[in-house]
């Protein structure tokens, strides 16, 4: 389905400004880095199937999958917010300028 971003009741004060979009962009990049590290994190944080972890504090596969469903929804929401704002992100603070990884969604 189509996702639509609503910014209040057509009040200019409800619309995001450049700082808001920069903040969203920063978190978008942080969440993308987590996505890039997903496989490594999974090995560190998720219990093995049928393996006794000797009491290690690791999460179950179900918990891991729930976290990543939330992650995916959050990335999509932030991406939609950025794209709907019609404000371009300030690329001066971007570590990977020229790389718009939002196109991958």
Instruction: Give the helix/strand class.
Output: mainly alpha
Determine the strand fraction and express it as a percent band: under 5%
Order of helices and strands: HHH
The termini sit apart by: 14 Å
Give Rg in angstroms: 18 Å
Q: Mean pLDDT, rounded to whole units?
A: 81
Major β-sheet profile:
none
- Helix coverage percent: 40-55%
Q: Report the total helices.
A: 3
Q: Low-confidence segments, ≥5 residues, pLDDT <50?
A: 91-99, 101-105
Bulk shape: elongated
Q: How many β strands by DSSP? A: 0
Feature tags:
105 residues; mainly alpha; 49% helix
Question: What does this 3D model show about the protein?
Answer:
Helices cover 49% and strands 0% of the residues. It has helices at 18-36, 38-45, 61-84. Residues 91-99 and 101-105 have low confidence and may be disordered. By secondary structure, the chain is an all-alpha fold. The two termini are 14 Å apart.
Task: Provide a short characterization of the protein structure.
By secondary structure, this protein is mainly α. Helix content is 49%, strand content 0%. It contains three helices and no strands.
Task: Reconstruct the topology from this structure.
Elements: H1 18-36, H2 38-45, H3 61-84
């Amino acid at each position: 389905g189509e996702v639509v971003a609503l910014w209040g009741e057509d009040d200019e004060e409800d619309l995001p400004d450049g700082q808001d979009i920069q903040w969203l962009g920063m978190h978008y990049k942080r969440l993308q880095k987590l996505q890039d590290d997903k496989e490594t994190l999974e090995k560190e944080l998720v219990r093995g199937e049928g393996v006794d972890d000797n009491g290690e504090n690791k999460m179950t596969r179900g918990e891991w999958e729930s976290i990543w469903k939330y992650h995916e929804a959050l990335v999509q929401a932030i991406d939609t917010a950025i794209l709907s704002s019609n404000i371009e992100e300030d690329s001066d603070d971007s570590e990977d300028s020229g790389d718009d990884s939002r196109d991958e969604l």
